[in-house]
């Protein structure tokens, strides 16, 4: 059992999967013309080694197609800053990891039936500000996206087991947009030069990631997957509607990180997002009643239909 856990941990850390041609066609059909040639990370360029599922992530959230669910509760977040342990450059992103041996940093409520423990958070970002997020809203990319990864310690004994189960994980997604300097994020940004190379780890104790979660309670939720191997369909996604603001220097600090180890030819850590996946037979629920239609951009009808495989 522990061998399986170790293998799963390694798989999560190792880039090795890519996108089928059909998915890539769909992905490009979803993009506005100006974003039709987004860079694709090598992880997603070779033949797909894991069979496509029916609830893969990320997805485009089509605002007007999301369904208000009045039974969705507010999300409750309770993090203990002293559970923060370290920052690890894993060669695809940097992970801020937490002590998850007890229920000290947890979320519950929202769409969740159990309490979930914080395991780690990380970001995805682009080489430019025009893209970088994994999820999109009405086909709009943000320059970066934060993922706070939690696991269901009520039903499963370990994170590695929760990763493999349908209701094992809950990930909060927060979009980053360009604006004012984010003081909470800056503490983290200041530490990044020390994990510039792949496989470097530094201690990073006492950090409360709730400072990175916007105050507006509104969110979308849907059933999806991990966006890195093993791509298991174990994630309840909770995507916050309101983005947080970060400034150009903070995004540039992300882009100074490297995919590569010390001594290798340097490759900047940018464009570490998975391409969009088909919605299939899923509904995105919202915790809020939408007034979006009042000022929505009208999508051409045939374009909207392309979104539905
Ligand atoms: Zn992620």
UniProtKB/TrEMBL annotation:
A molecular-function term among this protein's GO annotations: carbonate dehydratase activity
Keyword rRNA-binding on entry: no
Highest taxon in the source lineage: Eukaryota
Reaction catalysis annotation: hydrogencarbonate + H(+) = CO2 + H2O
Top EC class for this record: lyase
Alphabetized UniProt keyword annotations: Lyase, Metal-binding, Zinc
Cofactor(s) of this protein: Zn(2+)
Record flagged with keyword Zinc: yes
Pfam family, one: Carb_anhydrase
SUPFAM superfamilies in UniProt: Carbonic anhydrase
Domain Alpha-carbonic anhydrase: 33-288
GO CC entries: mitochondrion
EC number: 4.2.1.1
Function: Reversible hydration of carbon dioxide.
Family, as annotated: Belongs to the alpha-carbonic anhydrase family.
Protein name per UniProt: Carbonic anhydrase
Organism lineage string: Eukaryota, Metazoa, Chordata, Craniata, Vertebrata
């Amino acid at each position: 059992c522990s061998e399986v856990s170790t293998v799963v941990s390694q798989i999560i850390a190792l880039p090795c999967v890519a996108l089928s041609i059909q998915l890539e066609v769909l992905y490009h059909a979803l993009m506005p013309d100006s974003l039709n040639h987004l860079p694709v990370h090598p992880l997603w360029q070779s033949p797909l080694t894991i069979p496509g599922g029916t609830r893969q992530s990320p997805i485009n959230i089509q605002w007007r197609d999301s369904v208000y669910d009045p039974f969705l509760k507010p999300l409750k977040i309770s993090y203990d800053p002293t559970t923060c342990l370290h920052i690890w450059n894993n060669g695809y992103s940097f992970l801020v990891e937490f002590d998850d041996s007890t229920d000290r940093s947890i979320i519950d409520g929202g769409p969740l039936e159990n309490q979930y423990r914080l395991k780690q958070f990380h970001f995805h970002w682009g080489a430019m500000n025009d893209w970088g997020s994994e999820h999109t809203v009405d086909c709009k990319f943000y320059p970066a996206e934060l993922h706070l990864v939690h696991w269901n310690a009520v039903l499963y004994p370990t994170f590695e087991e929760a990763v493999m189960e349908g209701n094992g994980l809950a990930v909060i997604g927060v979009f980053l947009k360009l604006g004012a300097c984010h003081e909470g994020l800056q503490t983290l940004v200041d530490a990044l030069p020390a994990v510039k190379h792949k496989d470097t780890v530094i201690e990073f104790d006492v950090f409360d990631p709730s400072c990175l979660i916007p105050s507006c309670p509104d969110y979308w939720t849907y059933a999806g997957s991990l966006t890195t191997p093993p791509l298991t369909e174990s994630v309840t996604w909770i995507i916050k509607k309101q983005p947080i603001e970060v400034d150009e220097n903070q995004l540039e600090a992300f882009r100074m990180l490297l995919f590569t180890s010390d001594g290798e030819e340097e490759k900047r850590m940018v464009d570490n997002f998975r391409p969009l996946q088909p919605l299939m037979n899923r509904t995105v629920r919202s915790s809020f009643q939408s007034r979006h239609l009042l000022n929505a951009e009208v999508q051409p009808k045939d374009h909207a239909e392309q979104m539905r495989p």
